[in-house]
Amino acid sequence: MRSMTPLACLLSNAVLAVVLAGASLAQTMRSETVAPSTAATGTVIESRLRGDDSIDYLVAGDAGQILSVDLATPNSSLSFNILPEGSEDALFIGSISGNVADIPLPKSGTYVARVYLMGNAARRDETAAFSLGIGLGGPDVAAGLAGGPDWWAVSIRPGSALNIRRGPATRHDVVGRAQNGQVMQNRGCRMTGSERWCRIRTHGSGVQGWVSGQFLIETEPPTMPEAPEGGPVGNGTPFDATGMVPCAATAGAPMRSCPFGVVRQGPSSAGVWIALDGGGERQILFEGGAPVATNLDAKLTSERSGDVTLVRIGEERYKIPDALVNGG
């Protein structure tokens, strides 16, 4: 084997030093302690990180207290986990459960809210700005927010609109708006600082998000639509609307009417169930106003005609109006 010259050795060592330095710089882990008094009143931390960097925010609490964390960021690959200090057994995993957490502390000690970029975004060395809300409430606060009515009605000045936000604070993006009297399903409330925020699903449109609790009043459940005779069952979630749509089961067959039920998930997104002859159901998932999946193993295509989408699944055909998917 040919021996390396002194210059080659020097260059090799220099390259190795650069590689090792780059590896150490590529992953920077830092931590910040949130004072108990600051956590008790609630705080918002503005920061940013890059690539493989991560930031640990340390909060000390007592067993039974509620650690509330919510993340706002324009980068969808940024997330956070909550775990006990010194442990990798996460109590909350943001990539699975979302950007809002309310965790009862299992025992007294210090807990970590770890903010990081996931997967490809970290490998691309992306930079992400974020704001992180952190609060620590007593068990009595959680008990006061637990339960509550099943349904809310919006109570605001007529002619104005209530913002529905992606998270429980005004710094989160607006995902929709609700009018006075609009009915919403209660999916739980929490405190952000001194203000109560409630997670909701808007009846009829399916828009989901968070609204300020001061603009909500308890109301009676809305009247749910009745499925037509022989209509679909769906997945157990109450339908937002039911009715009939044009359908054809085979190529060349004339269109007839088939019963449908729809569960909406906000603008242009919905699950549609259509009852078939023989008791089966055809499910079509819409995202962004277009059909993207179905429960039949056949080619799925679509084309637009005015405000109607013609969906083809193998030989089957369905005409789906925009109003069916979006409401209104």
Automatic annotation (TrEMBL):
Query: What sequence ranges are listed for the domain SH3b?
Result: 160-216
Give the signal peptide as a residue range, or say none if absent: 1-17
Q: Which InterPro entries match?
A: SH3-like_bac-type (IPR003646)
Keyword field: Signal
Task: Note the superkingdom of the native organism.
Answer: Bacteria
**Gene3D superfamilies membership:** 2.60.120.380, SH3 Domains
Q: What is this protein called?
A: SH3 domain-containing protein
Q: Which organism is it from?
A: Paracoccus liaowanqingii
